[in-house]
Recover the amino acids of this structure.
């Protein structure tokens, strides 16, 4: 009888990139359902446009680079990038927004650096930031959540909003984060009574809190399936929670918003569980990922409160992507049985 | 050392040793003022003028400058011509002068100019030096215009807007609106990141073209028949 020699790692089920990417896509479903429920079919337009553009630009770049197209398209990574960007974009934005954003993400931020595994920056966030600084007007028009006022555009209106020259203004409303940031005249409890989007919700604005909750559920599922460890999300959420508690100012008119507002509004949960957990562009070791998450959490709060853009997750993630090699340098784990590792910054003798 | 021929100098300045795409010198103006074609031409022409004049002057003085004062003296010469260019622009293209602002006096710190003065003009006679300055300047100008055109087109959807700042009233209607009146404007192209992206893509394009030429040259290389050496492996190419 011939004995089979198998070397480590002895995993029962090998995890391929495609498996992981499919899990991530599956875990985004609750968040997407919540987004559609509160912000309407515009989300699905974004998903479709981003998905198609991602596959097309990935195939184009692979062809130009002389790589096997089918092999790389089947790893689903382009679709994950597309989905992450699509849920971050405002629903009912003109069709060229998702197309330009996804093409930038895949071509500039991913394939030009060498494709999956070589990109120093999170492609979806690069696409988002390029769109945000290029088209600030289109990128900050969010429709009011379904439970607040006018109701949502129907399918026909959605088509003319996305593909026509129809203006989206009639449906839009400031997001909870913007409302709180621009307030410096009335106390928080009064603000929560006066602003419909906050009054209809319970902690962080109607719609937004449910979307974040749904992404939290999806993220916890990924954590349970061991797609990533707890370090980065916990670091980010803890830092954000601590800072927003310190600056809550007991809900006065100068308050920067309650900790719950910061945790459950904007892109917090999407960022914490789906974006900073990207294994390629974040730090490598678990301790490094904890620091990476803490850095993102601090930057998110700082940029949200003292910066000039409505949300901050994308900027915070990109800034920490820059810092990831430095974090790696200082958090090199010691391999069992070996001496402490030498850092790249240590002087040669 | 014999000076290179005019052909070599031209090839070097415009392509093989292009200051912006190969030497990567003078990146500060390259990135800062290429938001539109008119700005690119304005600064490119000023740099070209300073480059020709300083190369000529340094070359004329090359036998009278000791090695110890060569660099300070070159910088003084460049600074003089930069001031001339600045005053001329102030006199004749005042609006452009205001738009370009600090980047005109900063021509003095452009490494291309000091680089050519030290690497070429201080070792070669005046004729080749002036030609070298001119060709390097033209190479730089062309890259500035290319980046300016791409950024202006992507960022505003126009080409040659405001050309009357340089060429007078006759150029007022040179402006081409290529992408339609309601083009939303891809702002990042005009912002600083756009300059890095476009410059990077141009460098990549140049490298790709060079690689393609090399590949073709390899294919066309004549196979020498009747070699005396016996090959035991591989194919003769």
């Amino acid at each position: 009888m011939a004995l089979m020699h198998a070397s480590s790692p002895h995993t029962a089920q090998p995890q391929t990139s495609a498996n992981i990417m499919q899990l991530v896509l599956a875990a985004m479903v609750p968040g997407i359902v919540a987004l559609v429920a509160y912000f309407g079919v515009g989300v699905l337009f974004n998903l479709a446009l981003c998905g198609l553009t991602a596959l097309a630009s990935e195939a184009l770049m692979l062809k130009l680079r002389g790589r096997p197209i089918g092999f790389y398209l089947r790893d689903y990574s382009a679709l994950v990038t597309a989905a992450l960007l699509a849920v971050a974009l405002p629903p009912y934005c003109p069709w060229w927004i998702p197309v330009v954003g996804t093409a930038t993400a895949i071509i500039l931020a991913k394939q030009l650096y060498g494709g999956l595994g070589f990109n120093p920056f999170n492609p979806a966030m690069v696409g988002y930031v390029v769109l945000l600084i290029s088209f600030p007007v289109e990128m900050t028009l969010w429709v009011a959540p379904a439970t607040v006022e006018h109701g949502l555009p129907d399918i026909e209106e959605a088509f003319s909003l996305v593909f026509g020259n129809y203006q989206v203004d009639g449906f839009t409303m400031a997001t909870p984060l913007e409302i709180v940031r621009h307030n410096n005249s009335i106390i928080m409890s009064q603000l929560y009574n006066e602003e419909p989007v906050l009054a209809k919700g319970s902690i962080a604005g109607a719609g937004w809190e449910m979307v974040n909750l749904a992404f939290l559920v999806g993220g916890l599922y990924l954590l349970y399936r061991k797609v990533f460890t707890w370090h980065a999300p916990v670091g980010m959420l803890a830092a954000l929670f601590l800072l927003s508690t310190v600056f809550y100012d007991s809900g006065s008119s100068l308050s920067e918003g309650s900790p719950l507002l910061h945790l459950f509004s904007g892109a917090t949960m999407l960022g914490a569980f789906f974006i900073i957990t990207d294994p390629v562009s974040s730090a490598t070791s678990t301790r490094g990922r904890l620091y990476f998450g803490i850095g993102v959490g601090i930057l998110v709060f700082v940029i949200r409160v003292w910066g000039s853009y409505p949300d901050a997750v994308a900027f915070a993630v990109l800034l920490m992507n820059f810092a990831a090699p430095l974090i790696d340098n200082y958090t090199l784990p010691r391999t069992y049985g070996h001496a402490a590792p030498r850092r790249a910054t240590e002087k040669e003798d | 050392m014999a000076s290179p021929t005019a052909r070599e100098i031209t090839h070097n300045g415009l392509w093989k040793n292009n200051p912006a795409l190969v030497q990567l010198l003078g990146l500060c103006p390259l990135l800062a003022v290429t938001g539109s074609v008119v700005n690119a031409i304005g600064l490119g022409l000023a740099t070209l003028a300073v480059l020709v004049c300083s190369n000529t002057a340094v070359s004329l003085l090359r036998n009278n400058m000791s090695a110890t004062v060569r660099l300070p003296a070159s910088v003084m010469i460049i600074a003089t011509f930069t001031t001339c260019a600045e005053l001329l622009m102030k006199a004749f293209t005042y609006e452009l002068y205001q738009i370009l602002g600090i980047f005109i006096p900063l021509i003095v710190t452009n490494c291309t100019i000091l680089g050519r003065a030290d690497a070429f003009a201080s070792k070669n006679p005046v004729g080749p030096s002036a030609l070298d300055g001119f060709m390097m300047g033209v190479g730089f100008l062309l890259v500035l215009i290319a980046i300016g055109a791409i950024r202006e087109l992507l960022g505003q959807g126009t080409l040659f807007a405001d050309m009357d700042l340089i060429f007078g009233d006759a150029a007022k209607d040179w402006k081409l609106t290529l992408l339609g009146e309601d083009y939303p404007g891809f702002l990042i192209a005009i912002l600083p990141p756009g300059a890095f992206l476009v410059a990077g893509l141009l460098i990549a394009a140049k490298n790709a073209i060079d690689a393609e030429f090399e590949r073709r040259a390899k294919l066309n290389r004549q196979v020498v028949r009747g070699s005396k050496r016996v090959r035991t492996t591989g194919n003769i190419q």
